[in-house]
Amino acid sequence: MDFALSDEQRMVLGTVRQFVQKELLPLEAEIQRAELEGRQFPDRTTIRQLQATARKAGLWGLLTPEEYGGANLGFLMTALITMETARALVPFIYGGGADNILYQCTPVLRERYLLPTIEGERQSCFALTEPDTGSDATNIKMPAVRDGTDWVLNGEKVFITNGCEADFAIVFAVTDRNKGYKGGVTAFLVDRAMGWTSRRIETMGSWGPAELHFENVRVPAENVLGEVGNGFQQAMAWIGQGRLLIPARAVGQAQRLVEMGREYARQRIAFGHPIADYQAIQWMLADSAVEI
Ligand SMILES: Cc1cc2nc3c(=O)[nH]c(=O)nc-3n(C[C@H](O)[C@H](O)[C@H](O)COP(=O)(O)OP(=O)(O)OC[C@H]3O[C@@H](n4cnc5c(N)ncnc54)[C@H](O)[C@@H]3O)c2cc1C
Questions:
Q1: Which of 46, 87, 105, 276 could form a disulfide with 256 if both were Cys (CB 3.0 to 4.6 A apart)?
Q2: Which residues contact 76 (CB under 8 A, 6 or more apart)?
Q3: Does the Cβ of 65 fall within 6 Å of ligand 1?
Q4: CATH homologous superfamily, domain 7-97
Q5: For the chain, domain boundaries
Q6: How is domain 122-238 classified at the CATH fold level?
Q7: CB within 8 Å of 29: residues ≥ 6 apart
Q8: One fold for both 7-97 and 122-238?
Q9: Is residue 79 within 8 Å of residue 14, measured between CB atoms?
């Protein structure tokens, strides 16, 4: 099997490398300063400016179908781009994308949620995890109870990435306790304006997870995403995409860190030699490279 990159893949990665060097790497120092000072950086405006710059270079809607204005590059190319982009230790995501399950929107919901998300006018978050249920997502408890033409949501979601920035959440709630995850979980598109609130959870890193609180939040029945009872499958489809792209980001970051170590070892002199000349240092760098 030939794992070599094609000419086209190399060309795209060259464009990404230029973008990373020119636009993202210069932000790293400010990100560290902001973290120490408890400020959030890059903020949404900065991210949108960066996305617009990337768009001019063709880096827009990496997984978005062409009919929605995307580049539809597929998972392999997107993973390669993610690795290359992650070499800058900057929490940045290219614009023009939307949660993969939002393509299940009805025509009405498409106008209100999918299209504005692709354009960056609206921001979503994915709300599955609960205080007592993480890996075992089959066990979520948040109830959604039908009342007339609405569903009423009560409960709490935790560790929700972008939970403080999002203006709508894709919320997974239990609509039939007897069926559980096998047909009893439903996905809802819930505007912040419908009444949920959020609070940041302090963590290391800048991805900003949050707690979301729902107290008698009324969601119109038309805001069900896809079919009632199909939520668990949708949640797994959403997570499946992350399983490819989150590790790609980790690999890119790790490669950059090993490179930084290698450069430092070359220029740092101790006992009359660059420390890269010492075998103990070489082993550590070699072990790290092999582990990646
Ligand atoms: C930065 C961050 C962002 C996140 N963003 C989101 C988001 O946007 N939306 C969302 O819904 N959730 C999000 N999460 C939550 C994430 O999905 C959960 O943290 C994850 O599912 C793990 O759940 P938990 O933390 O409750 O750990 P638990 O499920 O309680 O697991 C605790 C430990 O036990 C281990 N473990 C669990 N089950 C087994 C088993 N069967 N065998 C062996 N070991 C096991 C786990 O690996 C873990 O080490 C985020 C979390 C973080 C940290």
A1: 87
A2: none
A3: no
A4: Acyl-CoA dehydrogenase/oxidase, N-terminal domain (1.10.540.10)
A5: 7-97, 122-238, 255-291
A6: Butyryl-CoA Dehydrogenase, subunit A; domain 2 (2.40.110)
A7: none
A8: no
A9: no
Pseudo-torsion of CA 281, 290, 4, 73, nearest 10°?
-100
Strand (E) or helix (H) holding 161: strand 150-161
Which amino acid would we find at residue 271? F
DSSP state of 133: B
Distance from the alpha carbon of residue 193 to the mean position of ligand 1, in angstroms = 28
Per-residue pLDDT tens over the stretch 149-202: 999 999 999 999 999 999 999 999 999 999 999 999 999 999 999 999 999 998
Pocket flag, ligand 1, residue 127 (CB < 6 Å) = yes
CA-CA distances (angstroms) from residue 49 to 30, 33, 54, 216, 226? 16, 20, 9, 37, 33
Q: Is the CB of 187 under 6 A from ligand 1?
A: no
Q: Ligand 1 in contact with 214 (CB < 6 A)? A: no
pLDDT digits 0-9 by tens, 71-108? 999 999 999 999 999 999 999 999 999 999 999 999 99
134 lines ligand 1 (CB under 6 A): yes
Distance 66 CA to ligand 1 centre (A): 34
User: ipTM, 2 decimals?
Assistant: 0.97
DSSP-based three-state secondary structure for 197: strand
Measured from the Cα of 205, ligand 1's closest atom is 1
Residue 242 CB–ligand 1 contact under 6 Å: no
Report CA(17)–ligand 1 centroid distance (Å).
32
